[in-house]
Write a structure and sequence with these properties.
Blueprint lengths: L3 E4 L4 H14 L4 E5 L5 H4 L4 E3 L5 H10 L4 E4 L5 H6 L1 H20 L5 E3 L2 E2 L23 H20 L2 E3 L1 E3 L1 E3 L12 H11 L2 E4 L7 E5 H13 L11 E2 L3 E3 L1 H9 L6 E4 L4 H6 L8 H7 L7 H15 L2
Parallel strand pairs: 1-2, 1-4, 2-3, 4-5, 5-7, 6-8, 8-12, 9-11, 10-14
Antiparallel strand pairs: 11-13
Helix pairs in contact: 1-8, 5-6, 7-9
The chain binds 2-amino-3-ketobutyric acid (AKB).
Length: 315
Amino acid sequence: MPRVLIIGAGGQIGSELTFKLKDIYGSENVVATDINFNNLDVVNSGLFEIVDAQDYNSIRTCVEKHQIDTIYLMAAMLSATGEKYPMKAWDLNMDSLFHVLNLAKEGFIKHIFWPSSIAVFGPTTPQVQTPQHTTMEPTTVYGITKQVGERWCEYYHTKYGVDVRSLRYPGIISWKTMPGGGTTDYAVEIYHKAILEGEYTCFLSENTELPMMFMDDAINATVQLMQANPEDVKIRSSYNLAAINFTPKQISEAIQKHIPEFKISYEPDFRQQIADSWPKSINDTSARTDWNWKHEFDLEKMTSEMITQLRKTYK
Ligand code: AKB
């Protein structure tokens, strides 16, 4: 049984990964950590420790205390917040990655999952069916940290034999924990506002198409990649990963099938420029071929699940 540590377990993806990994490996083998106690569902779900992702000793102490062999590093500052605090984003995203890579290099842990993002791509990247290997000139601080991080992951794997695996997540849509500070966050907020207020003002323009994915698919991809045979994991920078692509107009039409009176308006802000620099769709053939990745949720299925679950939450 792996002994797992999740850093950033209180966040949107970290929280659901925590619940899933506890289901698979048993609560006693999974230690959730975050820098605060904010997510009570996670804090109360079993083993929980306060860990500062920027403090090497804080992570190492926790690793040694719980005899951890696998770390999922989910703490990061995302694209929109990163533009407000560039140096903080650089420090958090890079320090935490180096700490974890070095713990593996020094023999304290054996396996690492580290998420990359579609933010590694930029305005000079082909925007439709973006290939795995292509021009990457990110224009956000977050994108720069993810691109540089990918190079370091591959470097640690090649030079030091570190088993680090990574996915370029698209925008992730879920109902349990809110995302924070991302450009794709509108696609979560819209469902909450649709249920609570029947209307939503979107910070991206109506025809801004972006790659997206329902949380269950993202978690399954993560688990599948981490369980894959090492020889099948041929890419050690980060895998392109895709499911669905849609615009604010298309998601609002999908919501209107369940809530006919729902209204959307558009007030694009600084996040429009970030979205415009990212792909509209992603080619993830390598993930599908190397370790049999398949997604399950399309826009309709995801919308129906989001609305059902949020109606229960807000009842
Ligand atoms: C963001 O919008 O910053 C993130 C991402 C695409 O990595 N959701």
